[in-house]
Amino acid sequence: QVQLVESGGGLVQAGGSLRLSCAVSGLTFRNYGMGWFRQAPGKEREFVARINTRGATAIYADSVKGRFTISRDNAKNMVYLDMNSLKPEDTAVYYCKVDPGDSWGQGTQVTVSS
């Protein structure tokens, strides 16, 4: 059974930084790409970033490009999202996801105050 557990969210002022973590179990982690998504109140869940199996290639939504960095540690079955220069519009619940796959974690809340 695939399990994903996100952590690291919190309340931060605009311009601040956070690091989100996602622990993955129940599969051979190094064989899967990993992604981060987010869902703001009243909005659909949207793509944030994706990293390939070896961590060599990453893609980002235009809204976070240059501010967020996705990374992974295949030895620890972990994926990370470093978020800098945070804006109030980054406020959302953030989720990690195995790619390909349909499993979601419980998410971690990020709130950016102005």
For this structure, the quaternary state is single chain
What spatial form do the alpha-carbon principal axes imply?
A: globular
* Amount of helix: under 10%
Helix/strand class: mainly beta
- List SSEs in N-to-C order: EEEEEEEEEE
Average the pLDDT over all residues and give the rounded result.
97
**Global Rg:** 13 Å
- Report on the biggest sheet: 6 strands, mixed
Strand content: over 45%
Trace the largest sheet across and list its strands.
Answer: 2-10-9-4-5-6
- Give the number of helices: 0
Poorly predicted ranges (pLDDT <50, ≥5 residues)? none
Number of strands: 10
Distance between the termini: 40 Å
Describe this structure in words.
The protein has 114 residues and is an all-beta fold. The chain is 0% helix and 52% strand. It contains no helices and ten strands. It has strands spanning 3-7, 10-13, 18-25, 33-39, 46-51, 58-60, 68-73, 78-83, 92-99, 108-113. It has a six-stranded mixed sheet with strand order 2-10-9-4-5-6, with no helix packed on it. Strands 1-3-8-7 form a four-stranded antiparallel sheet, with no helix packed on it. β5 (46-51) and β6 (58-60) form a beta hairpin. It starts with a strand and ends with a strand. 30% of the residues are buried. The mean pLDDT is 97.
Question: Helices and strands in order, then pairings?
Answer:
Layout: E1 3-7, E2 10-13, E3 18-25, E4 33-39, E5 46-51, E6 58-60, E7 68-73, E8 78-83, E9 92-99, E10 108-113
Parallel strand pairs: 2-10
Antiparallel strand pairs: 1-3, 3-8, 4-5, 4-9, 5-6, 7-8, 9-10
Which terms would index this structure?
single chain, 114 residues, mainly beta, six-stranded mixed β-sheet, 10 strands, globular
